[in-house]
Design a protein that fits this description.
The complex is a heterodimer of chains A (732) and B (78).
Chain A lengths: L10 H6 L5 E7 L5 H9 L3 E5 L6 E9 L2 E7 L11 H10 L11 E7 L3 H12 L5 E6 L1 H6 L2 E3 L1 H7 L5 E3 L8 H14 L9 H14 L8 H10 L2 H11 L1 H15 L4 H17 L3 E3 L8 H7 L2 H21 L1 H22 L4 H18 L2 H17 L1 H14 L8 H6 L4 H6 L7 H10 L9 H11 L4 E2 L2 E2 H26 L10 E4 L7 H35 L4 H17 L2 H21 L2 H13 L6 H10 L6 H8 L8 H10 L11 H13 L4 H11 L3 H26 L1
Parallel strand pairs in A: 1-4, 1-5, 5-6, 6-8
Antiparallel strand pairs in A: 2-3, 3-4, 7-9, 10-11
Helix pairs in contact in A: 4-12, 8-9, 8-11, 10-11, 14-17, 15-16, 15-17, 16-24, 17-24, 21-23, 22-23, 22-30, 22-31, 23-31, 24-32, 25-26, 27-28, 28-29, 31-33, 32-33
Chain B lengths: L10 E7 L6 H6 L7 E7 L6 E5 L2 E5 L1 H4 L2 E5 L5
Antiparallel strand pairs in B: 1-2, 1-5, 2-3, 3-4
Classes of the chains: A alpha/beta (732), B mainly beta (78).
């Protein structure tokens, strides 16, 4: 007998521990306004779910309709249940309830674009056969009307065996009260036994089940169907494990009966689209499109030459914005970090706690937040380009050029993103269907000049490249442009090299739906942007922060008492002999000298001295070597380390650091920072993979430790050899 | 005649498809099957990739893929 015990639950806990809500998957083709529908239904009650074991973050939101609540899962856009990219694979796996820890859907909200009804219905057919209750939201009905598309919705619903269809305009919110009512009643009113549109496939799956008997009961009939069509490795492997090779023979036999010699996916497409064309042609008709402002303009802009020019122009605007708009924000963050550091430094007695808080924690957080302006501005543009449909046009435009590097137009977004930060860029490669192309793009991305390289470039260029003008062009600007170019050359060269060797394969397939131009939905844009910021802070931010604290510890320990005693003595002496501004200057000098001495004998300083012979052929002394070592886990710390090493103070103005760099010499009086050495150092920075966050994300996305190791080794060697050649030629 | 032989605004019906070529099944999944009407819109800069329209959806593919679709031109009647 069950025993009863009283449990007291506070009111707070009650709201949290409510029973699990019904889970509804939101599924549709890409660019159907699916996410806008999802946002409309859930409002801000969303969170990003992390499923263990897979590199996926998907939005889950709660829709509250009347008295009931439903959990909606927003899945990546798919054309059908045969996945071709990592993103699509995730959507299909969630639908099949295969992702551990992900809520298994109990119902489906299919989102179908009224202007692309046929493609939407292909997916609807497959979803209908999965055994969940389903309703259809027909989006873009306003666009369809403008384009002269007329759909008999009632007739369509009838022809689909009674699946309810609700026309909506997601951006304006019209049709949503009906849709919400339908969702709240779907588990009562819609059967989970929806029509099977391809009886042949269902029959084949049942044949297969009969042949292999008891072993097949572990699989849903849809899973067997997908195995017959796609040879889904997961099902095939577990079939083989449970029922032996015999089961695979059975699978091949039913496949041959169903499809003959035609590839099963082709057979499926033939069958389903023929059904759609024959059964639905009388339900959709085309009248002449309404006159629409801008259609002629957009059509003209899509011509090869205008689109090329507008692409170059918009890229110019994007980069200008990324730098010009972000600069004041970055200065503000920089200023706020220093003031906070100074304030803490002033409030606390000098020592390990003060140093840890100021140079470890505050500087660490600052070094993460400083990247946000550029990353957010770049992603704002990318999201706007994506939501207006322009990104697909850009991919179409550059595909030819990318093809000559062995890539396709689909690599353009990741490579573009990597000009802000390689971490989100590498995550954006999930849309690339071919694994070889995806890895080539992942290895090319870290070459692009990310925002972390800029402070180093800015410091060295300002200090060592004369500000001469050639007409309109400035030499410093030219050198910076050259460094960007160096990154691009390194990246595409690497992709080409990989595609010609270890990743050799057939020419990448490029096929892409080109959505009509449409105005973006502000709410979706903001949500996506917040998503980007969150992903960056979590994926990159935590690692950058940890690295900053680690570098601080390496530069702080061990602490020498004699240097500290000397500093205290020198300060007291100064206080006795000087006053006013001269005293302050002397005190700063004493502190900075002591900091430099501390660093020289810290773990980091000693490592620099040990490794100096390795970097000596590049013209680097132990100080440069130590700074570069500190920069390996996160390149952006280099400027701060150089500041401390050269005793101008970690928070010093760049100008004073630049002056200091110009004056340091070898024992024999030659300047250390000669032009060949500086150019070599810049090349080293352009090509080296000095970013632990990027390495971690490469490992995560390729699901192997080999690729990050290869990328790191390859780029380090490339950077070293580049710097070596330049220095040796210049010094000779 | 195949899909890569069309001139802009030409309309055609797909007659037969080399289903074994790589990437073709994927295109078929997007609606390019025998009997589908297809319009050639334009080529990108340099003549590749190509833009088509099927059932109101614009999308693109490379020439290598376009050549796998044998077609029959639909004459324009006034």
């Amino acid at each position: 007998m069950a025993s009863f015990s009283e449990v007291y639950v506070s009111a707070e806990n009650l709201t949290v521990t409510r029973r699990a809500e019904r889970v509804i998957a939101v599924v549709g083709n890409p660019n159907t306004g699916k996410s806008t529908v999802f946002n409309r239904l859930t409002g801000m009650r969303q969170k990003v779910a992390n499923y263990p074991g897979v590199t996926v973050e998907k939005r889950v939101g709660r829709a509250i309709i009347g008295d009931s609540a439903f959990d909606l899962v927003d899945l990546p856009g798919i054309y059908g249940l045969s996945p071709h990219s990592t993103d699509e694979r995730i959507a299909v796996d969630v639908l099949l309830g295969r992702i551990l820890g992900a809520p298994e859907p109990e119902g489906i909200l299919a989102v179908v674009d009224a202007t692309r009804l046929y493609q939407g219905l292909y997916l609807v057919q497959q979803l209908s056969e999965m055994g969940y209750p389903m309703i259809i939201a027909l989006t873009m009905t306003d666009m369809a009307h403008l384009e002269g598309v007329r759909i008999d919705i009632e007739g369509l619903s009838k022809r689909l065996g009674g699946i309810p269809i609700f026309p909506v305009v997601a951006t304006r919110g019209s049709g949503f009260s009906e849709l919400k009512d339908a969702i709240s009643g779907m588990f009562e009113t819609v059967s989970s036994e929806l029509p099977v549109f391809w009886p042949g496939l269902r029959h084949a799956a049942e044949e297969l089940r009969k042949k292999i008997g008891e072993f097949a009961t572990d699989f849903q009939v849809v899973e067997l169907e997908r195995a017959i069509i796609d040879g889904d490795p997961e099902v095939v492997e577990s079939l083989r494990a449970k029922a032996g090779d015999f089961s695979l023979d059975c699978l091949l036999a039913v496949r041959r009966d169903l499809c003959g010699d035609v590839p099963p996916l082709a057979a499926e497409a033939r069958y389903r689209y023929t059904w759609i064309r024959e059964k639905l042609s009388d339900l959709q008709r085309q009248v002449s499109p309404l006159p629409r402002l801008g259609r002629a303009l957009i059509n003209w802009l899509n011509q090869p030459w205008p689109s090329t020019l507008s692409f170059i122009f918009s890229m110019g605007v994007v980069f200008q914005a990324v730098f010009a708009w972000a600069a004041p924000l970055m200065d503000m963050i920089d200023g706020a970090t220093s003031s906070l550091g100074n304030w803490i430094g002033g409030a606390l007695p000098p020592g390990i706690l003060s140093s840890f808080l100021v140079d470890g924690i505050v500087a660490g957080v600052g070094s993460v937040v400083i990247f946000l302006p550029q990353i957010l501005i770049l992603f704002l543009f990318i999201i706007l380009m994506e939501d207006t449909g322009y990104l697909a046009r850009a991919a179409f435009l550059v595909d030819r050029a990318m093809k000559s590097f062995g890539l396709s137009g689909q690599s353009v977004v990741p490579l573009l993103s990597s000009f802000a930060c390689a971490v989100p860029a590498i995550m954006a490669t999930r849309v690339i269907p071919n694994r070889r192309d995806r890895i080539a793009t992942i290895l090319a991305a870290p070459f692009m000049t990310c925002s972390a390289r800029l402070p180093v470039y800015a410091l060295l260029i300002a200090a060592f490249v004369p500000s001469m003008n050639f007409g309109l062009l400035n030499l410093q600007g030219l050198v910076l442009f050259g460094l960007y170019l160096l990154g691009v050359v390194g990246g595409v060269g690497t992709a080409l090299l990989l595609k010609k060797s270890v990743l050799r394969g057939s020419n990448p397939i490029f096929m892409l739906a080109l959505p009509e131009f449409r105005f973006p939905d502000l709410r979706s844009v903001i949500l996506k942007l917040l998503d980007r910021a969150r992903i960056f802070l979590r994926r990159a931010g935590t690692i950058i922060f940890a690295v900053a604290v680690m570098v601080w510890a390496l530069a702080y320990f061990p602490r020498s008492a004699s240097i500290e005693d000397g500093r205290v003595a020198a300060r007291s002496e100064a206080v006795l002999s000087l006053s006013g501004q001269a005293l302050q200057a002397e005190l700063d000098r004493v502190d900075n000298e002591a900091a430099a001495e501390h660093l020289a004998q810290s773990l980091l300083g000693r490592a620099g001295q040990v490794i100096e012979p390795v970097f000596a052929p590049l013209g680097w002394d132990w100080r440069v070597s130590a700074a570069v070592i500190a920069g390996f886990p996160a390149r952006e710390v280099v400027v701060a380390v150089l500041g401390t090493i050269y005793a101008v103070g970690g928070q010093a103005e760049e100008a004073s650091l630049a002056e200091r760099l110009q004056s340091v010499t070898w024992p024999d009086g030659r300047p250390i920072y000669s032009l060949p050495m500086v150019l070599g150092l810049l090349v080293f920075y352009a090509w080296c993979l000095q970013c632990a966050a990027t390495l971690a994300v490469i490992g995560r996305e390729t699901n192997s430790w080999r690729w990050p190791v290869i990328a790191w080794t390859y780029m380090s060697i490339l950077g070293y050899v580049g710097a070596l050649i330049i220095y040796q030629i210049g010094a000779a | 005649m195949d899909l890569s032989d069309l001139k802009p605004n030409d309309k055609a019906v797909i007659q037969s498809i080399s289903t074994d070529a790589s990437g073709i099944a994927r295109l078929m999944m997007m609606g390019l099957v025998e009997g589908t009407e297809i319009i050639f819109v334009r080529a990108s800069l340099g003549g590749d990739p190509l833009e088509f329209q099927v059932y109101g959806t614009a999308f693109s593919m490379r020439k290598e893929q376009a050549q796998q679709f044998k077609i029959e031109l639909i004459p324009i009647n006034g």
